[in-house]
Amino acid sequence: AKAHNVARFVTGDPWLDRSAIWARALLATNAHYLDGSIVPMPCPAEYNFFFTHDMLLTNLGAVNFDLERVKRDLLYVASLAKDNVIPHAYYWRDDGFKTEFCGPDNWNHLWFILLTASYVRHSLDRETGNALFPLVAESVGQMLTQLREDGLMYAGHPDWWDIGNREGPRAYITILTIRALREYAFLCSMLGRNDPSLLEKEKTAERMERSLVDRLWDDETGYLLNYNGAEIDRHIYAGSLLAPVFQVLPPELSQRLVATASERLVDERIGARTVVPMDFHLDSVIAYYKLAGKEAGEEYFYANGGVWPHCTAWYVLALQSIGRVDDAAAFFRGTMTIDGIARSPMGQPAFYEYRYSNPLSLDFGKIDKPSFLWAGGFYLSVLYRLYAISENEWNLSVPSVRPAHVDSVSFTLAFGKPKDVVVRGKGERLAILRVDGREKPSLVLPLDLADSRRIELEFGELRVPYLERLDAILHRISYDRGKRTLQCTVSSFDGHRSRVVVISRSRPRSVQLDRREVAEVRSRMESDGAVRTEILFAGSQKNQLLNVVF
What we know:
Distance between the termini: 50 Å
Number of strands: 34
Structural class: alpha+beta
Radius of gyration: 23 Å
Shape: globular
Largest sheet: 6 strands, mixed
Strand content: 25-35%
Strand order of the largest sheet: 1-21-22-25-23-24
Number of helices: 15
């Protein structure tokens, strides 16, 4: 019932649509009783405890359609917190229930911030957002203790792992912290929280972006590498794929990073590996990283080069981020759908924890732990990102570029009240968007759509100017045909560098913010004759009225 009744996602591609139902069913059934609560369980018949990480990553998919689940799970984490520090895990051991709390360099802090912000963005539920905010603020504070003078985040574990202990600057948590600081700014703006350090935190995120390139970009390999102390780590880890996903690299470096991943990490038949070289089973490497024996796994197994669903998901989204949308869709179909997995080497129709990745072995592609919780969550997350909804730190929008093999898509979207959304047509230009029959000139969803029930978008011929992107909260938007004026109300925080992108047939004659002319306005002609206009201005906690006259 949960698989069919909570939400729907229909593309007309049976591989995609079957897997969406399967993934929702997996999220509904992978749960167990633990100390008075029903909590998410990673895999049937295993792990008789609660992992915060598994819940957070899974719900980044579920937040698109099941807000009740996400709210329940976030509040459960809050119930286990101590002094606002979130738990890493909760379980029974010998003499009672135990809670492991997150240390300062634990990536759960960052994913918790990202999921809380995403929940608020989808639900517009300020009450729950405010209840969770003290934990979010504590997680921000905990993580920033790991920020060093070089503008990078330091940790003992390699990449996204929770094993090993050799401290140095890490691309993975630096990328995540950049995103988390910007999500924190959104939460403060949305919840009306007065944090005088917001502008400083935004500038810190910008400085970290620069440091990521200046310190961790390796031109020889075309990738973001890590350090252990002052010694460069030549391993290529999957976590660096989040840099193009979150768009924290210059476009040309994102292109190179994805190309390196394609060549070094990816096997087109089964997905993206965790790391190369795969040497974490060697005694010298175990001693160097202070691993507990072969806890990373043998070569090509587990974390030591196995294929995990989140690594594959990051690769798909990285392809999308550099404009290779059809390549992303093809790889997604082949490696993340139930049908694609079943038709791959040693495949079986199941979501999984990881796959054995040695192409020379008869066991190549063998699946470990079928029916794995966050594999289903990642499938749904990527499905929505590729075919349905984009999500930046400030708002939800419909992507202007979608995979060509699907003509239309209809889906359930959680944004305020649940909505039926239909997207039709070819091309990258919005022809019309109707909300309960009313036209809206925007790919970005404004807050005043919260109570609507149905959204219909058609792509094709550009008819009226519309909003394509906004790095601020969009409250409402309209277009007056008589006055040829696009008008929108936005907010953020004082001093925030707000960015607006408008698509039109002609250049604007005037751009005013609160009746004052905006100085930073740049327009350029696109290859199809459309005009892309970028508008930059200082944001405010108070609502700002932007008028673009054509």
